[in-house]
Amino acid sequence: MFLGIDIGTSSVKALLLDDAGAVVDTSSADIPISRPKPLWSEQKPADWWTATNMAVASLDVNKRHRVKAVGLSGQMHGATLLDKALSPLRPAILWNDGRSVAESAELQEREPEFVSKGGNLVMPGFTAPKLEWVRHHEPDIFAKIHKVLLPKDYVRLRMTGDVASDMSDSAGTLWMDVANRRWHAPLLQACGLSEEQMPTLYEGTEPTGVLRQEAAEAWGMDRVPVVAGGGDNAAGAVGAGVVDEGDALLSLGTSGVIFVAGNTFRSNPGSAAHAFCHALPDRWHLMSVMLSAASCLDWACRATGTKNAEQLIEKAERDGTLACQEVFLPYLSGERTPHNNPYASGVLFGLSHDTGTAQIAQAVLEGVAFGMGDGLDALLAGGIDIRSISVIGGGSQSAYWGRILAAVLKRPLFYRDGAANGPALGAARLARYSQAGGSFEDAFAAPATTNVIEPHDADMDLLDVKREKFSRLYKALSPEFTGASNG
């Protein structure tokens, strides 16, 4: 038995995988999020640990007792700042926090190796500009920083006592020489930091320590190895079998991601695509990220008084019209790929007296799909070849949304067994590989296909016209977004 734990933005998910690779139990526990000022997004590290304990405790205790290894995945880029006692100095600044706009521009101008060595533009979502913001605005806290950890690695610290991370998650800090899979001193120095303040780097399949006695007793487990794991998207890719050149993943979680695996490092910073290490040795990936995807459905539920996202999608499918007149710009937390605009805002355009819940729901589903289409175009501009797209995340449970996405992306979408488990499944697979070994092809094969959604010509024709309007609307409004949410 193997345990995968995913430290998400809205919840911690725990999953048990048996020796044959089948999922036998899952659980989750919610995490609160704080937005104390415009553009800010924070969480208390202690809440991650509390939710982790709750999620693990909800798993079958008899199965937990047989766990042989634990794997971790988690939300990327979060700045978790620790003092010499390894206690948090402040709430963690999350991936969807946009406060460090000025610091991003300053770092980009000051240190060109962020692009040449790191392979990425400096954006407010990444870890490096967050630390620069702390250095400028909270110098007393910055002076006390002993270690900087990512969210899942703070949980690892509580689990094992080890200060460690994996390549895929750490690449998202912007402090790595990504091609050579190591910390890069000039990039750290640009933020007033040193390698001594960073965790030790491991490949995703390597053990970083063992479960502490207190945690093992609380969880009803032996003191088993804890492997490095991966950032949520890399771990999700491992879970879906997206590990070889040209394999692609579409993740519909809080954020929306298109992830393309590769056997060599390549980057395309001009399109605001992200170039990071994969969670497996000698593998890398290119990724487009939109900051609000399935979370847009949560917003629409609150706005329309709908109970949950499932009911919202049902209303769109039953009462809406494909390519309705309403247009939704899904930039509720700003946007990364391809706009790199933290000030971009959500917009619901084209309302009339006939606009109701179904029409709003339809517009939101289409708007997120259009955003994903922009991300795919950014990746294709880098010359990559995408062979197939697997779908994971909570949004993967809707075939109707899949129909819209397939038409916008103009590619078939493959739905895999256990797709909703995403990164937690990948983390458990990495733990399993650390003990069983074997070939990557066997250990990380794609789960069985449960459904394939092909794009339909009529849908593509309708949505192509609507997407052009979507693009014109963003271009027209973008001057109004700049600085609009800066408080």
Strand arrangement, major sheet: 18-19-17-16-22-23-24
Describe the largest sheet.
Answer: 7 strands, mixed
Distance between the termini: 50 Å
Could you tell me the mean pLDDT?
93
Plain-language structure description:
There is one protein chain. The protein is built from 18 helices and 24 strands. It has a 7-stranded mixed beta sheet with strand order 18-19-17-16-22-23-24. Strands 3-2-1-5-15 form a 5-stranded mixed beta sheet, sandwiched between helices. A hairpin with a 6-residue loop joins strand 18 and strand 19. The chain is globular and about 60 Å long. The protein starts with a strand and ends in a 6-residue tail after the last helix. 55% of the residues are buried.
